[in-house]
Amino acid sequence: MASHKKLVYGVNWVRVHKLPAYPPVIHIFAVGVTRTTGWTEAELIPKDEDTSTGERTFEFRARPNGPLQLMTPITASYTWQDWSDLSQVKVVSEKNYVIEPVRDETVEPKPICLKGKLVDTNILHQVLETEDKKKFTIIGDLRNYAVGEAVFLFGTIAEGAFFGEQKAINVCWIGKSEPAMKL
User: What is the pTM of this model?
Assistant: First the structure.
């Protein structure tokens, strides 16, 4: 329930893209930070308001959970069908907001299947290291897989989302054996 969720501390950036679907939809993806570790269930919550101005506001909220005072990255997304008169999106946090226009180009997610090991990088987000030593920041549920385990990940590259030198991957599926699906 959103009622127990709080605004995250800050929003760093937002991307809004049309997705190839019928009827057309837009996908809103936001990256922000929390004041402490352990925040969960992040989401973009639309505020009830008139969209005749062409702008829709979303609150970036999550459930606080951790006592450690350390800025921690967090992500959330929202897919929306009823956006015909929308020209821009505003995402609000505790300390700031970001306004992002709806981009005209359609962006198709890039599916990817990776084999690697979950590694401890002394940072606060999960990382997969592939056999050729490439590292990917993981966005999504790891289903209780732990550091050191060899896994296969299937997902999409989070366009524009970088943590240091690493690309980010939105996890759709994780498992010990190669997935049956083919790209």
Answer: 0.60
